[in-house]
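Pair request: fold both.
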Amino acid sequence: MRVGAELRNLLTSVDNMVLLFPPSAHKEIEIAHKVLSKDMGELVSCMKNAHNFSNTSLDNVYRKQMLSAAHVLALDAKNLLDVVDSVRMRFPSLRMNSITLNEAEEAPPPPAPESSRGMKSTSCV
């Protein structure tokens, strides 16, 4: 699954980058990281349900939940990048490894419409 691999790469890049930040900035990055990781698990669960119920009358319900979980995950990835960028802006004196920086900014997800920014995760149980 390419999305999962890209998200793991993003999390790895952030993990490497956070070492360059002062300890005072670690907590907010850690929180955004945990939210993204949790919602990645939620998407996997939704995908399994969508696959398991694909030949039933519940197919559309589980597909909608999967798409909703994917949307939330995209928002979480954008939020993580925004948090990292915010920390970088607050600490401009930090010299960062350009390779690590480029990996983290390589392929950010597209921005979500304003109306969906407050959207909460849906459960796929």
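--- second member of the pair ---
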Amino acid sequence: MERFLHSLRAYPALAGITTFVLISVTLAVLLGTLMHRSGASLKPLVFFFGFLAIVAVPQGTVHLLDVLAHRRAVRLHAEQPPPSDTGSPSQPASPAQPAPGLKPVSWDLIFGPGADPSLITDAKRGLDAIVGAATEAKLSFNRSGESALAARFNTPLEALQALDRYGTFFQFAQASGSDDWGWTARRHGGQGEWNHLVAAGNELYAWSGATREGVEARRIQALGPIPAATAASGATATAATAATAASGASPAGTSPGRQSVSHRLVANTPVMACFVGINLVFAVGWFFKGSAWATRQSPPSNTPALDAQSLRERLLAINHGETPVTVRTADDGRAIEITWRYADARWLDLMRVHRVRRTHKLVLLPDESSRTVRVREFWSAFDASAGLDGLRLHWEAATGMQFFQFEHRRVFGAQLDADGRPTGELSAAYTFNLQELKGPVADVVTAAGWTWQPVLWNAPAGFRWLTE
């Protein structure tokens, strides 16, 4: 467990993936339990998390491969000597010497006057992959959330090795500087905090913060100015790294981010385009086919299929029951429109007049050749209020496919009738359960031997293989 928790702290991507999986599983269990108890089908849940998996699993897989590649790179770097400042990559490194002009200083200077003594911790607990060989290592935080690291080693060589491991571990990018006077870089491939890192004799110091200027200012306050020649030294080191990469070797100073799966994938345009294209095809296909499958209701086996006119008569008969819906034949004479105006309230409160209206409509189009009733959904909401401070209006309408919806609302105030006269009531409530609208209609369709098939759009016959 301790190793797993350390991995979460060390690799933000792994922590994000773990959090995402835990939240997804929790939601799946919670929603599945509620839907099962209400008697609803679990197919919409399978569709939703299936679509989520198509989008998220490839990305999560790439990030996991990045974590594994990065851990391997950290382990290999820990076993390598620090790079030589002057020799070629194939030559053995010369013995490290203390950086000219930099000597170990009091750790109080490193932590700074703003460090909170209660937040100074043992850095070897969380950063053992970097400072595990140190005889002592401390990590401090100030009131602004900035941190400072100080670690003491047996030899200057070990301090330089730790410096190299630090940059490798945190995937430094946008780096400038030198081993002599320190490096300023940004963590996690340029997406994280800024760091300044320097080895002074047998000690390693590192400062982190939100800006480059901030971390360099704290370094200068503790150790003095950074020579202007450092920039040229950084350029030389970068050139040496490029030469090493061209020779086919794996340079110790190369950030593992450059060798990560995601970096290589993004850098290879044809492969990346193919990857995105395949993922997009699966996502679009599942969006249409999966949603149609999740909402489809087939008739019971051995149910005789009625003709289209008989089915139409049964659907129109819903209008005569004690249901809060209106059923009518559409103007084109083919489709059947079923409308539920489940909220239509007017009330007066605090010198403002309010109006609320909610409407949900189903448009059914029977297809006798396939014994299928294709269903499209439309819904709208209208809110208005008027008073001494002006008029407020809000209206929205949408079409699509809703798997489930439950809405309950109570409004307080002097209730008004359709003519604007007080009714004597001081509150009004409405409840809308989409299943109460769809359920009876779908039951009529399937009992007639037809298939209930919600669709996102009435596709031409040649494209129904995609939408159904």
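Observation on the second member. The longest helix spans residues 43-79.
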